[in-house]
Amino acid sequence: MDNHSAVAADTTRTTVQRRLEALILENRFTIAVVFPFIGAVTLVASAEGLLPSPLAYNPLLILFGTMVMRSPLVVGLLPRIGWWALGCLGLLTAYTYAIEVVGVRTNWPYGAFEYTIQLGPMLFGEVPLALPLFFIPLVLNAYLLTLLVLDEWSDNHVIRLLSAITAVVAIDLVLDPAAVAIGFWEFVPAGGYYGVPVSNYVGWLISGTVAVVLVDLAFDRESLLERVRTCEFILDDLVSFVLLWGVINVLYGNWLAAGVSGLFCLGLFRTDRYDRDLVWRAVPSRLVGDESS
């Protein structure tokens, strides 16, 4: 590729990036707040038999809603994703499928569990084909929030990795009880933590460690931290996660799990990720004009 072609490619990428960022910013409240609340309501209604069969646990709606809520994270990270990062994330994708297939077939490392509904097309008829869409963003969210909360302490390799791994496991302390409650999957026998066994968290400790190490290798930390600090919406997917699964845990009385989601709320508040712009952009432009006048 000659210099002219390289410059043209860079210009095109910059233009596309700006348009995507503008699209996210214009719809930020809808993506980060409206979608997870609608998701929580429809999933609980599906679990309680309140929706007709075409809508209950509709895999297309689940996948569409998940992709929309993931979009701020994807768009936020795009400027920092090069070939090296793609390679590391590709390895993480392969690992995600492998550990899940092993888990379903051998009951290791998570314990005996099975999917009770189809979350879209199933790989080998056993695990969701969209599994990386569900899992990898959770790891990225945990890692990015860790960088922001630790600030200068994130320079320490051991502290950074241990904190991010802890955050990944904490995310599952929120996710699995809610997912079991609405019937996404079940453990046999049921565990003591809202139906989830301790073995599941041993499994998440193992898979989370591998995932965090790969994410840490994928990006230049200083460049990534600069991007996270300056991109106001990059953690909106974590906002969606807290709202969606936190609301479900509250509705089913999973108070400890809801409390852990509250800790993520504190982290988001501390890092100014529940900022006024998230709500302010939902206000009609006419009212904004009236207020500014």
From TrEMBL:
InterPro entries in UniProt: BABR_hydratase, CruF, CruF-like
Origin superkingdom: Archaea
Transmembrane segments: 28-45, 51-69, 81-99, 129-150, 162-185, 201-219
Keyword Isomerase appears in the UniProt entry: no
Assigned keywords, A-Z: Membrane, Transmembrane, Transmembrane helix
Keyword presence, Transmembrane: yes
NCBIfam families: crt_membr_arch (TIGR03460), CruF_Halo (NF041333)
Name this protein carries in UniProt: Putative membrane protein
